[in-house]
Design a protein that fits this description.
Blueprint (H helix, E strand, L loop, with lengths): L8 E5 L2 E5 L5 E4 L14 H23 L6 E10 L7 E12 L4 H15 L1 H7 L3 E10 L1
Parallel strand pairs: 5-6
Antiparallel strand pairs: 1-2, 2-3, 4-5
Helix pairs in contact: 1-2, 1-3
Pfam families: OsmC (PF02566)
Protein name: Osmotically inducible protein OsmC
InterPro entries: KH_dom-like_a/b (IPR015946), OsmC/Ohr_fam (IPR003718), OsmC/Ohrsf (IPR036102)
């Protein structure tokens, strides 16, 4: 049988929802005050960007460990362009990987990103179906 994910999302009233996760944790989703919400939850479209960065980040972190690479710090910035017309969706997404350290192996770190982007990250593959992706890596040597 195919692997499935099942998430339940419950209306909390007004514009707020609570969504569970197979991890057992919950998150709150809410619209901003400009859209009738209280601004007390995460926005759905932005959550997609967190999912994208998180998915790729897990791949890269796993590969850093496997390749025994020295990285002091690492973060991912996702900058997405929304279409003007409804339904608004991301048509261009820029993903920037930032690495910090005194002994960064740029070649192997780039290989880790490439493996995530091209082979392992399922969320990246989903985004590829509807958006143009731009990937950049920035190394900060200490």
């Amino acid at each position: 049988m195919a692997t499935t994910n099942h998430v339940s999302t419950k209306w909390l009233g007004q514009m707020a929802f609570e969504s569970n996760n197979p991890s057992g944790l919950h998150l709150k989703i809410d619209a901003g005050t400009e859209d009738g919400g209280q601004g007390e939850g995460l926005r759905p479209k932005a959550l997609m960007l967190s999912a994208l960065a998180g998915c790729s980040g897990l791949d890269v972190a796993s590969l850093i460990k496997k390749m025994k690479l020295e990285v002091d710090d690492f973060h991912i910035e996702t900058i997405a362009n929304l279409t003007d017309e409804h339904p608004k969706y991301y048509n261009k997404v820029r993903i920037e990987y930032y690495f910090y350290g005194s002994n960064l192996n740029e070649g192997k770190l780039q290989r880790a990103i490439d493996l995530s982007v091209e082979k392992y990250c399922g969320v990246m593959e989903m985004f590829r179906q509807f958006a143009e992706l731009e990937i950049e890596t920035i190394f900060h040597h200490k």
